[in-house]
Amino acid sequence: IYMVTGKDVYYGMQKRLLAIDSTTLKSTVPVDSEMVTFIHDDMLIPGKIYRPNSGINRTAIVMNPGSGAEDMDGTFTFIGPVGCLFPYLNNKTVRNFGDLGKGLASYGYVAMVYDKPEWIKAICSNDFGIKTFHKLWMTSDDAINYLKTKSYVNPDKIILLGKSEGTFLIPKISNGRNDIKALISIGCGKAPIDTVVFDQLTSLVAHNCLNDPLNSEARGVLAAFNAIRSGSHNYVLTGDLFPGYNCLPFETMKEYVDFYDNVVSNYNSTTNLNLPKLFVGMSQDWNIPPLQFERLKRSVLGNRTFISLDDLTHFLCTEYSAKYCPEATEVIVYW
């Protein structure tokens, strides 16, 4: 259930009886939430700060969301092919990012979440404005700057947390700063974005949740991203996984591909090598499977801890219930 070898930890669902019992961790701090807005490039970004209802000089965690058009709470409904893949969760809704933020605040941390730019406005809409990589994927940069102005936050104790796609982004963001004290990655792995999506699409076909017997959509994703890597502007991204990405300039898409391809070198950079880093995987993660988590574990150097949460999906719940599992919150606090 609970084995420690160096800093590699397997963290089972029975952990409360072993590593973390009721005398070690207590979530007793009353939590407030504060709706905020901050400027990011040419957009006004809505956000939410979960925080203890009293106290100053709190350690603060800026939470970088996953891929696609996500709202600040990470709202996701299991419908369509993904609902088919998780039949017990079909038509159920999770808000795992909001639940994680509230959980962290209940242990005394300040946690900030925000709406992604493409959630606020469709990328292809006329009023989206500039379509740069920084605007679409580096929102946490300005969220950090904003959060540091709050009187209840210790500006010298800022942690950057990423989930899913956010785990690929946070080392890149940290590389450009000198005020990040730790990195936390949840639902992480080592794989190019097109490999991740190819595996997801072919898995859906194999489970009869997607009608594409020739895997045409999956092969099209590989072809498009290989074209981008080679410098070709002649590519088309089809399907629902990259909404609006065909409207992005080639330079933006090239930077998008590069940050996925360079995730290990970003974690192993001079800035991040000795920064405390926590990597949390889930044994039932379909989006970024345990194999990719293991590949990342073999590649990241320096001050790092890898922990696997048994029985949890990518959405921080089990495949049988949409209820948020507090293990993700507790393992961060314990670390």
Structure overview:
This protein is of the alpha/beta class. It is 32% helix and 23% strand. Strands 1-2-12-11-10-9-5-8-4-3 form a ten-stranded mixed sheet, with helices on both faces. β9 (153-163), α6 and β10 form a beta-alpha-beta unit. The protein is globular, with a radius of gyration of 19 Å.
Itemize the secondary structure elements and their pairings.
Layout: E1 2-5, E2 8-11, E3 31-40, E4 43-52, E5 58-64, E6 75-77, H1 80-85, E7 93-95, H2 96-106, E8 110-114, H3 117-120, H4 133-137, H5 139-147, E9 153-163, H6 165-175, E10 180-186, H7 193-206, H8 216-229, H9 250-261, H10 263-267, E11 277-282, H11 290-297, E12 304-309, H12 327-334
Parallel strand pairs: 2-12, 5-8, 5-9, 9-10, 10-11, 11-12
Antiparallel strand pairs: 1-2, 3-4, 4-8, 6-7
Helix pairs in contact: 2-12, 7-8
